[in-house]
Give the backbone structure.
Amino acid sequence: MTGGEFIVRLAQIWLTAGAVTGALFLTIGMDRIDEDARGAYVFRPLLVPAVLLIWPLVLWRWFVLETGRDNWAARHRPPRKQHLVVAIVLAGLILISLTAGLMVRQSWPGDVAPEQLTRAVGEGQ
């Protein structure tokens, strides 16, 4: 088996596992973990491509929510102290980038006359 055949076979296995997970989750699991999704069958086909690709995450979250191990309060608490640090660092990086860009920019030499690269329409050869 060559490298390309191996990658194709691995992708087939991954997508097959995703299809099985998607079929189970979208028909059985979604109704069990999300009460707002009960009876809402129109949007579920839109989730199929995502479930095919990230099926291990879907299985893990399904397990966590089914067993009641989800720490909802901690998961939705915003990390405000980290936001301040990141905002300050990004502002500094923007200033450094602008300063560096202005320092290394090239200026047009004043003693060189510009040349027209293309002829204007209607001019002779």
Remarks:
- The CA atoms of residues 118 and 125 lie 11 Å apart.
- The chain has a mean pLDDT of 85.
